[in-house]
Amino acid sequence: MRSFDDEHGGHWQAALMEASFGNVLLVFTRIGAEGVLRTPLESANFREAEGWLAEAGEDRLRELLGQAKPFFCDRP
Question: What confidence score (pLDDT) does residue 73 get?
Answer without folding.
Answer: 61
